[in-house]
Amino acid sequence: MRRIVTVLLIIIMLLNNIPRGTSRRAFNTLHFRKVSTDFGRKYASNYAARISEDNKAINMTLDLVRDLTVDLWLKVNITQRETKNRYKNIFAYNMNLCQLIGKAKGINVFTIWLQNIYRYTNMPMSCPIEEGQYYWRDLRPDKDSIPAFILTGHFRIDALFYMKDWDNDMLTNTTMFVYIKMK
Ligand SMILES: *[C@@H]1O[C@H](CO)[C@@H](O)[C@H](O)[C@H]1NC(C)=O
Ligand SMILES: *[C@@H]1O[C@H](CO)[C@@H](O)[C@H](O)[C@H]1NC(C)=O
Ligand SMILES: *[C@@H]1O[C@H](CO)[C@@H](O)[C@H](O)[C@H]1NC(C)=O
């Protein structure tokens, strides 16, 4: 149970959108400040992210050149900046995305969250993920999507998508710096 809750929190934080009114404290603003990307050339021909001019949204594209016939894993680290070069750990988690998606069958809170997360993308909600051009367009956090315990500040989010069964080969590596201002 703790595991599921942790996974959900990470997903909410990272990707956004839980149904309105389910979190107690809304945030004022989330600004994407910087994003850097890298990808495995064996699996993709391009992976890029672009922050909107107002810093409130982000577009991402991934050109997958090969079917991913094994499970896709996600390793996430979220840290908050304390001083210029010191970060405090908020979350570190490693999850099998295919298994997670597979479990979200039927109508429950879990499915609703996942559906919200998938609202901005053409990614399939099932595995295997086939070769093709994928995107996230105008991805922006919903105002109720940041957990209440988060404090105003600068955050760093590291997200590594990889294939555990293919020698832990990297699909994409993303580092995002965001500023969150809570009410
Ligand atoms: C993101 O994509 C949307 C929809 O295609 C487009 O209108 C917008 O200009 C793009 N923003 C950036 C920063 O590229
Ligand atoms: C997450 O943090 C751990 C320890 O702080 C580090 O070993 C690991 O490389 C980090 N992973 C990512 C994806 O940044
Ligand atoms: C991912 O990117 C971060 C930041 O650039 C880097 O520290 C880390 O080593 C990279 N991880 C992999 C597996 O390439």
TrEMBL record:
Keywords: Signal. Gene3D superfamilies: Ganglioside GM2 activator. It comes from the Eukaryota. Residues 1-23 form the signal peptide. The keyword Signal applies. This is Uncharacterized protein LOC117569808 isoform X1. The lineage of its organism: Eukaryota, Metazoa, Ecdysozoa, Arthropoda, Hexapoda.
